[in-house]
Specification:
This protein is 74% helix and 0% strand. It is an all-alpha fold. The chain folds into 2 domains: 96 residues, Rna Polymerase Sigma Factor, Chain: A; 85 residues, Arc Repressor Mutant, subunit A, CATH 1.10.10. Helix 2 runs parallel beside helix 4, helix 6 crosses helix 9 and helix 7 crosses helix 9. The chain is elongated, with a radius of gyration of 19 Å.
């Protein structure tokens, strides 16, 4: 944990509940473990002093994701260069997703293969599509929360998510066809 407060159920402790999700989101944005860690750390550096000013019923998760995204966008504007592509960084995130436990090795292999196919397909999506898929499907933010995080109307979130899912379906379908053709030709 980044910090520990004197009160066990303080607002600061509530912040730590979202650290894994923030790190995953930072990985999607930066595609680099070190940069993602720095981004999460900077998010907490800014959030901790401001947490006591939050209203009682504030959506802390959405607030933290918004801070992280704004820091990332500010850093991008300052550097004016794109982050290097690193496929290994999304690997860690996908490995951390809890999977089902299967009894037989064939089912386990099939599940791991499917997860790898999805990971590779998500990696091929543009950043905007990866970002929205992560926020909705993995972080389970509502459309309203996503709209707040990325700073656009809820209708835009819905249309972007629809396009991202459609692109993902096309990529997965193409991968399935290639995989099927490869298996048929090897038999």
């Amino acid at each position: 944990m980044f910090f520990r407060s004197a009160q066990p159920d303080s607002r600061a402790d509530i912040l730590t509940q979202h650290i894994d999700g923030l790190y995953s989101y930072a990985l999607v944005l930066t595609r680099n473990r070190s940069d993602a860690e720095d981004l999460v750390q900077e998010t907490y550096v800014r959030a901790i002093p401001a947490v006591e000013r939050l209203r009682e019923n504030s959506n802390t998760k959405s607030w933290l994701f918004t801070i992280l995204r704004n820091i990332y966008l500010n850093q991008l504007r300052q550097s004016r260069i794109a982050s290097p592509v690193s496929g290994a960084d999304i690997d860690q995130y996908m490995m951390d997703i809890p999977g089902q436990t299967f009894g037989d090795p064939h089912s386990l292999l099939q599940s791991k293969t499917e997860q790898e196919e999805v990971r590779q397909a998500i990696q091929q999506l543009p950043i905007e599509a990866r970002e929205i898929i992560l926020l909705r499907e993995y972080e389970e933010l509502s459309y309203q929360e996503i709209a707040s995080v990325i700073g656009c109307p809820i209708g835009t979130v819905m249309s972007r998510l629809g396009r991202a899912r459609s692109k993902l379906r096309v990529l997965l379908s193409a991968r399935l066809q290639v995989s099927t053709q490869t298996n048929e030709s090897s038999q």
